[in-house]
Amino acid sequence: MRVLGWCLLPNHWHLALWPRKDGDFERGQELERRSSSDAQEILYRVFESVTFAMANAYELRNRRAGEDNRRQLFSVQLELFGKLSAAWRQRTRVRLDEVLSRNPFRDVDPSAA
Question: For residue 34, which of 13, 40, 43, 101 sits 20 to 30 Å off, Cα-Cα?
């Protein structure tokens, strides 16, 4: 998904996404609904998507043979969050550590292929 834009309102926000290919989701389909009256929570959610998209684009341009692509992706996303907020960086670190506890990095030796 590509982020087209977002709108922050007093008690909720909207995020407009563009699918990468046909069939990613149906027109008008709601993928997720969250609500919050906390502006920091709303901004965190917006920048979670933005930093993920930026980190993903970086990793695609700088892919390393044999390395689990999440190594660079997660590292860059944490770096970006660190420029925004130390608390947001830590929150993201905890979430990514949970992901890795269930699905550890899986690097592959490129010479073994």
Answer: 101
Mean pLDDT score, 55-74:
95
pTM of the model: 0.73
For the chain, state the CA radius of gyration: 16
DSSP state of 62: T
Encoded amino acid at 60, one letter: L
Domain ranges of the chain: 2-106
**Alpha carbons 110 and 107: distance in angstroms, whole number:** 9
Counting Cβ atoms within 10 Å, is residue 59 exposed (0-12), middle (13-18) or buried (19+)? buried
Q: At what angle do helices 86-102 and 39-61 cross, to 10 degrees?
A: 60
Closest CA to 44 of 103, 94, 102: 94
